[in-house]
Design brief:
Blueprint (H helix, E strand, L loop, with lengths): L4 H12 L7 H16 L3 E7 L4 E3 L2 E3 L4 E10 L5 E3 L1 E2 L1 H5 L10 E5 L2 E5 L8 E7 L11 H5 L1 H15 L3 H26 L14 E2 L4
Helix pairs in contact: 1-5, 2-5, 5-6
Length: 210
């Protein structure tokens, strides 16, 4: 079974035999995603930065779902990609705007490049965080690969709302088992204790990473 945002809503309502909750199920999914971010360690994901993300000159906005930058790649004139070097805010200020794009620094939810990228330049970012919410995309990496998190997390929210506490507990147990299994697998990939927990309200962390 492969679900997307729309079919997830229908599946959950069918499982709960509550077809009348078509409006409420959107909020159930939203609160499920908040629970996922509390219970599931940040994942390693990839995204891109494009002209639409540019704030000014060489400064680009990062998604609020990015917790730690692992690596950034740019494309050379011949189409090959190369890794940029993280030099920190002090280092980035010492580099000329007209230099080749080879360095970056992260500040809060922005990343600054030197030199200043040309119009329509694109960058690939490897980061730790979470995928986009389903309200803004038909599907994401978690729903594609770990749909039990969404199914049983959303059912838990539905049953909690309807005060079906025994069913809510059963759904929560399945969700918790799925989250634990994902965290265990995720921990092996990044060396266990270095996995980031949920929400970091400070600056985006950077890593020497790759």
């Amino acid at each position: 079974m492969s679900l997307n945002y729309t079919t997830l809503q229908a599946f959950v309502l069918a499982q709960a035999v509550r077809p009348e909750l078509t409006t409420e199920v959107v909020q159930f999914i939203r609160t499920c995603e908040a629970m996922i971010r509390r219970k599931v360690f940040a994942l390693e994901l990839r995204t891109s930065l494009a002209e639409v993300d540019r704030y000014l000159d060489g400064v680009y906005n990062l998604s609020g779902r990015v917790q730690e930058i692992r690596a950034i790649y740019a494309a050379s004139d011949d189409g090959n990609t190369y890794a940029l070097e993280n030099v920190g805010l002090a280092g980035i200020r010492m580099l000329g705007a007209n230099a080749d794009v080879a360095h970056y620094a992260v500040s809060g939810q922005t990343v600054e490049f030197r030199g200043v990228p040309g119009t329509d330049a694109e960058f690939e970012i490897v980061y730790r965080g979470w995928p986009d919410a389903l309200s803004s995309t038909p599907t994401n990496e978690l729903l594609d690969n770990y749909e039990d998190l969404y199914i049983h997390g959303t059912l838990f929210e539905l049953y909690s709302w309807s005060q079906d506490l025994e069913l809510a507990q059963a759904s929560l147990s399945t969700f918790t088992d799925a989250a634990a299994a994902l965290n265990k697998a995720n921990g092996r990939l990044v060396g266990g204790g270095s996995v980031l927990p949920a929400y970091n309200f400070g600056h985006v962390r950077t890593s020497r990473g790759y």
